[in-house]
Structures are given as C-alpha cells and as structure tokens.
Write a structure and sequence with these properties.
Shape: rod-shaped
Order of helices and strands: EEHHHH
Number of strands: 2
Strand content: 5-15%
Distance between the termini: 61 Å
Strand order of the largest sheet: 1-2
Mean pLDDT: 93
Length: 97
C-alpha cells in the first residue's frame, strides 16, 4: 500500500528513499520502547527514593523496614527485559516509620 505526503494541499506518493527513511525512523521508535519505559520507571523510583533520602543522614537511625524498602526500590529494574515487564512492576509499600 503506497504512502503519501501532503504538499501544498496535494497528496503525493512518497519516494522509495523517503519510505526507507520513514520506516527506519519508525523502527528506531519501536526499538527504543524499552529504554523509554525503563526511563519512566527509574524516574518514578528515583522520586520515591528522594522522599526518604533524609533518613539516610548520619544523624538519623533508619529502620530495617525502611532499609529494605529503599533496597527494593533500587533493585526494581533488575532483570527487566520487556516493556510488558515494566508495565507489570509493583512498587513496594513505603513503611510508616
């Protein structure tokens, strides 16, 4: 099925070179899906870690539950190889203390 572009309100069939470039850009976008998904996951994880960073100060005693929570957050991307796995991530529950 031919693809078209609009030039001066007229549809013109794109050339073979243009089609190859378009398909290469589309494939690059598809290939980058996991990186984009992981980036979003890391952003969310980093925000959750930032909320508890103050607890890592030397003058604060961090509970074992909080240490576990923070470690689980840091490990959350381990072993993820697909966008579906990113979408299925369940974040740990932040301890109350």
């Amino acid at each position: 099925m031919p693809k078209y572009k609009q030039v001066n309100n007229e549809l013109i069939e794109i050339t073979g070179t243009e089609l190859a470039e378009l398909e290469a850009r589309e494939q690059a976008w598809i290939d980058g899906a996991l990186d984009r998904a992981l980036s979003g996951l890391r952003d969310r994880r980093n925000n959750l870690l930032a909320e508890t960073d103050w607890m890592a100060n030397s003058d604060v005693t961090m509970s074992d539950e909080m240490k576990t929570y923070r470690q689980e957050l840091r490990d959350i991307t381990n072993g993820i190889t697909t966008v579906e796995e990113v979408n299925d991530v369940v974040f740990p529950t932040k301890p109350s203390k």
